[in-house]
Design goal:
heterodimer, A: about 140 residues, 6-stranded mixed sheet, B: about 450 residues, 7-stranded mixed β-barrel, 5-stranded antiparallel sheet, elongated
């Protein structure tokens, strides 16, 4: 476990990167959607311990206004992502205003589409990788 | 208001302060007091009769008269008076707005709900400070508050007129004035150097009694108070005019805007797409609406397959309800499935006019559950409700999720596998929906940043 230098932001919800293996993937320029999902699940599963680590809360605070709903909110995002990946349709990912269908996106290297953005927050310097997921549905 | 007893009290305090200082020496450049050290003294006044020195007074200074007045201002604790004045003014500003709020209580409840939803679930925080221009709120609604402040500014400005008394207190060139318990006396003076001044005792003339000087100083102090008021009032006026409001004021302004225009709009971002969310009043009902934004869809059905169809922005609306619970709390929640109210044609709606349900396909059941969950949480004060792996945390959360889902379905849900009421191309000719006839037009729309959904 590491003090987070990177933070994923999925639909506005921050996920501090606390696992060395995920940080290494970012640093070796090879990150996929499932890596973000795995990191999010790990963070949610170990939330109460990880939040005690120095730098974790600090990495989240610039992006959230209410901490008490964080776990439910993150769980919703994880479920949304998992449902989208499982169905493989009616679900899109957006990065920097580019829209991708989830099917085509699964094997893509996210860092070929976007780069970590350096942010100087009140709590120090961090790097964010931001994406949006949208369940699109179908009319009828 | 300062009572006559307060004034007497203030005058006594000024008198005590002055007598404690001993003699005060008024020179054209400011006020001097006796120095306890000859070495550190700035000036020496040599009081003399012709050829006979009576006394030498070593002085420290000068204190500018404005500084001296501010000293007395602090001594009289007038900052506290100013604070009470500003608190009172704030209450009056609120009462101006609240008179209007009395008629608009119901709207204010909806607006507070709406703002909470924007803050928590769309990351749009308009509750702390908001730039009214960005909210599309017209400045004229601030009129009554601005009028009140302008009146206060005029009064404060008039109160500063006593500043001219400075010229009565300070002497002209080659004169020195001395204030003691006997009053203010003036002498002619001859400065042989910057630090050495000869004062002729024979030229002594009384300028004013001590009580008159106390009155002058008191008036100067009140002028200083009015200057401080003026500074605060002008800052407040500037803030209001440039559109910054506190939360309470914002609610009032938005409620008035809502009542007069029938809607308020806020820009939001959904999945990197800029759009707007509105609170709308229609036929006696209040709706939360999301604007679909403009976009282009490639037709995949029927004889026009392959054609590009332009859809202008349209509102999809969800009716809201306010209810007073048995504990007298008011709650707001969405009560109906999404509908369209304006004239518009889209594959997901039957008909072009009137209130029409939006067909949400397989998501309809989930959206219905969200609406039921919102009511459940609001009325039974539940902390959260689980539906199909989704945790609903508040009525605002449920509404935000419905708006986001509806936005996505309307915009992106016309695609192979959908079961629309009609084709996209057949919507053309209604309320600005049209088939794009040339590549040039399509490229122009693409350049404008419109999404072309193929």
């Amino acid at each position: 476990m590491i003090a987070p230098k990177y933070v994923f932001i999925v639909n506005g919800t921050p996920i501090p990167v606390t696992r060395t293996e995920t940080a290494k993937k970012i640093e070796s320029n090879n990150l996929k959607l499932k890596d973000i999902l795995e990191e999010a699940k790990y963070f949610l599963g170990n939330y109460n311990n990880l939040i005690q680590l120095k730098g974790v809360l600090e990495a989240m605070l610039p992006f959230i206004s209410e901490l008490h709903i964080y776990e439910d909110d993150l769980r919703n995002k994880i479920n949304l992502l998992e449902a989208g990946i499982a169905s493989g349709e009616d679900f899109s990912i957006r990065i920097d205003s580019k829209r991708f269908s989830v099917k085509g996106f699964l094997d893509m290297n996210i860092l070929e589409i976007t780069k970590p953005v350096q942010r100087n927050t009140d709590y120090g310097l961090i790097y964010t990788i931001e994406l949006s997921c949208l369940k699109e549905g179908r009319v009828g | 208001m300062v009572s006559s007893r307060d004034v007497l009290n203030y005058l006594n305090k000024i008198k005590e302060f002055l007598l404690e200082l001993g003699e005060l020496f008024f020179l054209p450049d400011g006020i001097y007091i006796q120095s306890v050290s000859r070495t550190l003294a700035e000036k020496v006044l040599i009081f003399e009769h012709p050829n006979r020195v009576v006394r030498e007074v070593f002085l420290t200074g000068p204190i500018y008269i404005s500084e001296f007045v501010r000293l007395i201002y602090r001594l009289l604790h007038l900052e506290e008076y100013l604070r009470r004045y500003l608190d009172n003014l704030n209450a009056r500003i609120r009462s101006v707005i609240n008179m209007e709020l009395v008629e608009m209580t119901k709207h204010v409840i909806y607006i507070e709900f709406f703002l909470n939803m924007l803050k928590r679930w769309f990351n749009v925080d308009v509750s702390k400070k908001a730039l009214i221009k960005e909210l599309g709120v017209s400045r004229e609604h601030l009129g009554s508050v601005l009028e009140l402040i302008k009146g206060e500014i005029t009064n404060a400005y008039l109160g500063t007129s006593h500043r001219s008394l400075v010229s009565r207190i300070l002497p002209s060139e080659n004169r020195v004035r001395v204030l003691s318990k006997d009053g203010l006396l003036e002498y002619s003076a001859n400065a042989v150097s910057i630090s050495r001044v000869y004062v002729s005792l024979d030229s002594e003339r009384p300028v004013a009694g001590l009580s008159e000087v106390l009155n002058w100083l008191y008036l100067l102090v009140t002028a200083n108070l009015e200057l401080e008021k003026l500074r605060n009032l002008m800052m407040l006026k500037k803030e209001l005019e440039s559109g910054f409001l506190s939360h309470d004021q914002l609610l009032g302004v938005l409620a008035k805007e809502f009542r007069e225009k029938g809607f308020i709009s806020m820009p939001v971002n959904i999945g990197n797409i800029e759009t707007e969310i509105r609170l709308r009043s229609e036929g006696g009902c209040v709706y939360a609406c999301i604007s679909t934004g403009e976009y282009v869809v490639k037709e995949y059905l029927g004889s026009q397959e392959g054609a590009y169809v332009y859809f202008p922005s349209a509102d999809v609306c969800i009716e809201l309800k306010v209810k007073q619970l048995s504990d007298e709390d008011f709650v707001v929640y969405p009560v109906e499935v999404p509908v369209m109210l304006d004239e518009y044609a889209h594959p997901s709606v039957r008909g072009n006019k009137g209130k029409r349900n939006v067909c949400l396909g397989r998501d309809e059941s989930f959206i219905n559950k969200l609406i039921i969950a919102a009511k459940d949480i609001a009325e039974r004060k539940k902390e959260k409700v689980e539906i199909d792996g989704f945790t609903v945390l508040s009525p605002e959360h449920a509404l935000a999720e419905v708006l986001k889902r509806v936005f996505a379905i309307i915009r992106y849900g016309y695609k192979p596998g959908a079961t629309p009421y009609r084709t996209a191309a057949s919507c053309a000719g209604v309320a600005g929906v049209r088939i794009i006839i040339s590549n040039r037009e399509l490229e122009e729309l693409r350049r404008r940043g419109l999404e072309i959904l193929e």
